[in-house]
Design a protein that fits this description.
The chain contains three helices and five strands. The chain is α+β, with helices and mostly antiparallel strands. It has a domain of 53 residues. It starts with a helix and ends with a strand. The strands form two sheets. It has a three-stranded antiparallel β-sheet. Strands 2-3 form a two-stranded antiparallel sheet. The chain is 26% helix and 25% strand.
């Protein structure tokens, strides 16, 4: 019967490569273009304030007052589109 401690000891000497999630873009223009392609804009049309959490990205989106406009990760778009008082703004 093996012990998990032996397996842990075996693995402790190994190095696992980790890819950096957010590498900076080579130029500011490219970074802004990438953000636009990966985000959508929502406006809050309620009467108070609202904080929504993106189910895919885990990001917290704070709409501090009526009329607040916030950029949202494209992956969270579908979920936030279903939130009462949030409207996706079509860019032009």
């Amino acid at each position: 019967m093996s012990c998990c401690g032996q397996r842990r000891q075996q693995m402790s000497g190994q190095t696992v490569p980790v890819r950096q999630a957010n590498k900076p873009a080579k130029s500011e223009g490219l970074a802004q273009t990438a953000v636009r392609q990966q985000s959508v804009t929502f406006q809050y049309v309620g009467k108070t304030a609202l904080t929504a959490v993106g189910p895919v990205s885990g990001r917290h989106y704070r709409f501090s007052k009526p009329g607040s406009i916030v950029e949202v990760d494209f992956r969270d778009r579908g979920a936030l589109a279903g939130v009462l008082n949030l409207r996706q703004i079509r860019s032009g």
